[in-house]
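ok trying this again, last paste got cut off
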Amino acid sequence: MSTTKKSIFMVDDDIAICELVNIILTSAGFNFDSQNKVYGSFEHIKAHKPDLVLLDLHLPDGNGLNICKKIKTSEELKHIPVIILTTREFNIEKEVAYEAGADLFMSKPFDKDELVQFIKSYLSDKIEVKFWGVRGSTPTPEADKMRYGGNTPCVQITIPGVDETLIFDAGTGIRNLGDHLVRTKKAINAKLFITHPHWDHIQGLPFFKPLYGPDNHIRISMPEQLEGNCKQVLSGQMQYTYFPVTPKMLIADVQFEDQLPEETTYDSYSISFILANHPTNTAIYKIKAHGKTIIYAPDNELIAKQAVQDSSFLGHLVDFCANAELLIHDAQYAYENYDQFRSWGHSPWQETLKIAELAKVKDLVFFSHDPSSTDSYLDGLNIRLKKTDNSLNNIKLAKELSVIKIAID
């Protein structure tokens, strides 16, 4: 955690509880403030931006859940953790609280050591992984694919202590990321790591607004291709025949570099890659920061019936991913439909799960959803995964705008 004292704000009509929590949290090294009514609470939160909010559900002048909803729907406040502390234990209220965005639901009376531990875990520095595009092959703007997302690959990784914006792939999701950066930053310093130049991984690049800001500095890296280096290949899609804005018209300071497979160390993190089993030179990136490892493998074919696949590649992949905190991996198909897409460069999810277990990764995210996979299909896959016997901490399906946080020890 940062050496700066974190601030906690509590909304609870029980003055004795507020005084008790004040003693507990100030003794634990936090700054504490409280209010005994709903009226004015959100305005206080908006003005002071506490690091964490404790909320009672039911107060004489309103419902704390409304404050939670306002926090979690506010672009500038939604990152603030919200813990519900209440004497009520109805399951329906717990469900509604989580739906409103609450991070934790605790019943009174509470264990003081447990409360402090929960707060410390939520306020510890974290690496954040945000998904701006999760769909493989082509965008899917259809209504039945909106909940999981229709934009093609783009992932943002935020590392504590690193001012640069780290971006992986420039699919159509990068357009929304660029709009967000322009709204929230005066000058943008970004590193964009592209896995390979297939269309779904680069088609958003010309629409990335930071490229057109004079105060912005952007470095774009990609493994060298048979057809040319990073600059030659990526500039090709912005030739006048295909797009009216050419690379010479970019206003930002833009640099192109060929990413080397060996580990490259930057300020507080390092990047390395191995080549995926995929048409053209395609990177599987390893990001290491603060003792944590993230693997990003959006396009990689793990062939069903592994005997037909080079076992040395599988062993190399398992070693490369070993003990990672997070593996983001291609899971575009299932055994049921894989044969008709064999050699297209994508994996059945069952093989992705096998590799994750062999590598002993902690959390697994299925990525590059097939263009034909509807929200209802992916919901069904989620249910199926919950019934799967496996050794992983968590398995998730990537969703646009969802965030995964990795605590730093």
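PB: full thing came through this time. The two ends are 9 Å apart (CA to CA).
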